[in-house]
Design goal:
By secondary structure, this protein is α+β, with helices and mostly antiparallel strands. Helix content is about 25%, strand content about 25%. The chain has one domain: Jelly Rolls (Sandwich), CATH 2.60.120. It has a nine-stranded antiparallel beta sheet, with helices on one face. Strands 10-17-13-14 form a four-stranded antiparallel beta sheet, with no helix packed on it. A two-stranded antiparallel sheet has the order 1-16. Helix 2 packs antiparallel against helix 3. It is globular and about 55 Å long.
Length: about 290
């Protein structure tokens, strides 16, 4: 099922009127939505509103964006999340900005197969060209990458379904996986994953599923030294460990963008680093 602009508008109207979550869930079910999907969307919507009300300094607001549903607080209860095929551990949870480190997201075999599928497709990784649109090579990002279509391989179908259940966001509202390889010295200097709607080249990206709202970075190997995912604005770094993943959100229901999501990949100082990145969009990504 898709999160359409009409559904987002309805969600905002109901929340503004003071409707209770359960009543909204039942209304969606009566309209033909699946119960699981309805609960995921309602929970995400109310979590976003709570964060916006308690806005912290450093949040970029007033951006000229379409209305956005944010999944910046996951419904975490305890330290284990059970998906349909795996038990994922919650290793670290930061409430604001919303950053969660998960363990046991991928098996060793899945990590190794993803690397194997990517090895023959590797080319120099690009960044979005903020002015002209499209992509370009930038010295801020020194890695090789391989991009895949959503569901391109049975392995990706399994992983994408698991991630959807883990964070409560529809599979179709996600870009295809991108696998990246960093050799010694390879890094990605601090940057934002969301698109700046005030820059023509980035605004063009919004046509394919709206704004990016969250990122999941999965670690495919154990790095000997370096290669941490760093969040300079909050003084946090997560260590790359095989099978784990870090999730962080940055887009608000009102179109605001959280500048505290500034992040990067520290230089690899020994060994190599393999990761797989999943970007979540506000609408179905086409």
């Amino acid at each position: 099922m898709q999160v359409t602009p009409e559904l987002v508008e309805w969600l905002q109207e109901q929340i503004t009127r003071g409707c209770q979550p359960e009543a909204m869930v039942q209304s969606m079910i009566k309209s033909g939505y699946e119960q699981t999907f309805a609960r995921q969307i309602i929970n995400a919507s109310f979590a976003s509103v709570e964060t916006i009300i308690g806005r912290r300094p450093g949040v970029v607001s007033g951006a000229n964006l379409d209305q956005t549903v944010q999944i910046n607080t996951l419904g975490l209860e305890g330290n284990i999340i059970k998906t349909s095929d795996r038990e994922v551990r919650v290793l670290l949870s930061l409430a604001s900005p919303r950053i969660v480190l998960f363990g046991n997201v991928l098996s060793d075999a899945e990590c190794e197969q993803m690397i194997e599928l990517s090895s023959s497709k590797m080319e120099r990784a690009h960044v979005v060209d903020s002015d002209k649109g499209g992509t370009r090579i930038d010295e801020a990002r020194t890695s090789d990458g391989a991009g895949f279509q959503r569901g391109e391989h049975p392995l990706f179908v399994t992983i994408e379904k698991r991630l959807s259940e883990l964070v409560g966001w529809p599979v179709e509202n996600g870009e295809g996986l991108q696998v990246l390889h960093y050799a010694v010295g390879g890094e990605y200097k601090p940057h934002f994953d969301y698109f700046d709607p005030n820059k023509d080249g980035e605004a063009a990206q919004l046509k394919r599923g709206g704004q990016r709202i969250a990122t999941i970075v999965m670690y495919l190997n154990d790095v000997q030294a370096g290669g941490e995912t760093i969040f300079p604005s909050v003084g946090l770094q997560t260590m790359p460990q095989k099978g784990s993943a870090v999730y962080f959100a940055y887009a608000g229901l009102d179109g605001s963008l959280d500048a505290r999501s500034l992040h990067g990949g520290a230089p690899v100082t020994r060994g190599e680093k393999w990761i797989a990145t999943k970007w979540l969009r506000q609408y179905a990504y086409v």
